[in-house]
Write a sequence for this structure.
């Protein structure tokens, strides 16, 4: 089995990854492995960053809240 070289491009700025969010879930380390080191395509924070920009990510948005991210993107006016 090869080494996985993936790393999300917003890890350095991400409050979730850097444990700077309130109410971090107990399973946050598992979420980091999945969303930050394996595949960020379903990461709610990354979805908003790609569509609206880094500054539009709600501080309290967790990576597994993709439905909430889709609503934020859908309701955003450009």
């Amino acid at each position: 089995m090869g080494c996985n070289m993936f790393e999300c491009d917003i890890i350095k700025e991400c409050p979730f990854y850097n444990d700077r969010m309130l109410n971090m879930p107990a399973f946050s380390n598992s979420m980091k492995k999945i969303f930050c080191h394996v595949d960020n395509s379903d990461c709610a924070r990354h979805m908003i960053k790609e569509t609206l920009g880094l500054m539009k990510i709600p501080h309290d948005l967790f990576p597994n809240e993709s439905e909430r991210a889709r609503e934020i993107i859908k309701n955003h006016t450009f």
